[in-house]
Design a protein that fits this description.
CATH class of the largest domain: Alpha Beta
Largest sheet: 5 strands, mixed
Number of strands: 12
Distance between the termini: 24 Å
Number of domains: 2
Bound molecules: adenosine monophosphate, magnesium ion
CATH architecture of the largest domain: 2-Layer Sandwich
Structural class: alpha/beta
Strand content: 15-25%
CATH topology of the largest domain: Nucleotidyltransferase, domain 5
Radius of gyration: 20 Å
Shape: globular
Strand order of the largest sheet: 3-2-1-4-5
């Protein structure tokens, strides 16, 4: 296949990202603009308004960094789901407009699959058990019989959301380049006392809402220091994640563990998983932050993989899929080890 270029658009939640990659997986541009709410969590409509406002500038910047012209693009990919409807629709509309204006094929990409694929190429990992932990998702998966199977997932809120809500209630504020989870991590590193909190693993699935409720109640009671509460929240939540990942690893007998998503930046989570993976003789790796949080390059790369296997999306089928599951997607390019 001739060398080509794919432009990918990410807009599932608070990030609007545009990436340009070659068909060989070289990343030429990865530009992101994140929506930071004035207060509270992500408001889908406000985030979508942000995306619509910045889209033109982010696309122009991506072309500039990649050093190519729009007409040189061969494929347009976009995050089709899962995610917040209003946010997804902005990315989809921009992608449709670009694809039809440039007369290029369109590829609707599953966001969770894109996280795994960019990790595989960047970290040179072949066939991992992947723990994907972010503001909206908590999924333990591994390839089996044609798809990335979901071995465990959250039954309610995502781990990133759990940490963010607690941090906000504790009065913590995100800073530029330092999301709430990172602010909480810093405070947790000063905690020493492990406060008993609900540890909820059901089968292979996880639940964080009870843990959050109790942590918030203790925060309001003011009996414990914020350092000890942050420390305990992390210890309990990350132990749950490590337990489920370990069981997926023992079951599948894979030889690699891959950590990705925004929460992957957390050092404590990294160290728990590393110890666990090494005990099983598996190689542990963490996707670098730029490619672990939501980004356009991962959508572009997943777009290349789909396109090479003829998996394009006609415009009339390019409606967004708010609840599109990872295990609903065939992965024909995967070569089992
Ligand atoms: P994403 O949804 O992939 O864009 O990632 C955003 C999520 O990652 C938010 O919930 C952040 O608070 C969280 N996050 C970022 N850095 C850290 C960190 N060092 N520790 C824990 N969570 C983090
Ligand atoms: Mg995000």
């Amino acid at each position: 296949m001739k060398e080509g270029f794919c432009l990918g658009i990410e807009s599932t939640a608070d990030d609007f990202g545009v990436g340009i990659v070659t068909f060989n997986g070289e990343i030429l541009a990865n530009v992101n603009d994140v929506y930071i709410p004035e207060r509270g969590g992500i408001h889908p409509r406000e985030a979508s308004r942000h995306h619509a406002m910045v889209a033109g500038r982010v696309i122009a910047e991506a072309f500039k960094r990649a050093g190519i012209k729009p007409k040189e693009i061969d494929v347009i990919a976009f995050s089709q789901g899962p995610g917040l409807g209003p946010c997804l629709r902005v990315g989809a509309t921009v992608a449709r407009a670009l694809a039809s204006y440039l007369s290029k094929p369109l590829v609707g990409v599953n966001h969770c699959l894109a996280h795994i694929e960019i990790g595989r190429v960047i970290n040179r990992v072949k066939d991992p058990v992947t723990l994907y932990v972010s503001g909206g998702n908590t999924i333990v998966s591994a390839f089996e019989a044609g798809r990335y199977r979901v071995f465990g997932e959250t039954l309610d809120i995502a781990i990133g959301n759990c940490l963010d809500v607690f941090a906000r209630e504790a009065g913590l504020k995100p800073e530029l380049g330092k999301p709430l989870g990172a602010v909480l991590e810093e405070i947790a590193s000063k905690g020493r006392k492990l406060i008993p909190l609900p540890y909820t693993v059901k089968g292979m699935d996880l639940s964080f809402s009870g843990l959050l409720t109790v942590a918030l109640k203790l925060l309001r009671e003011g009996k414990y220091s914020l350092e000890d509460l942050c420390f305990s929240l992390q210890e309990i939540a990350f132990s749950m994640l490590t337990e489920v990942t370990e069981r997926a690893l023992a079951h599948t007998e894979k030889k690699e563990v891959l950590l990705t998503g925004g929460v992957a930046a957390n050092r404590r989570l990294q160290s728990m998983l590393k110890v666990m993976a090494e005990e099983h003789g598996a190689r542990f790796s963490v996707v670098p932050k730029e490619y672990a949080t939501d980004n356009g390059a991962m959508i572009a790369w997943a777009g290349v993989l789909c396109y090479k296997y003829g998996l394009t999306t006609p415009i009339e089928k390019s409606f967004v899929r708010i609840r599109w599951r990872l295990d609903d997607v065939d992965v024909p390019w995967f070569k089992e080890q």
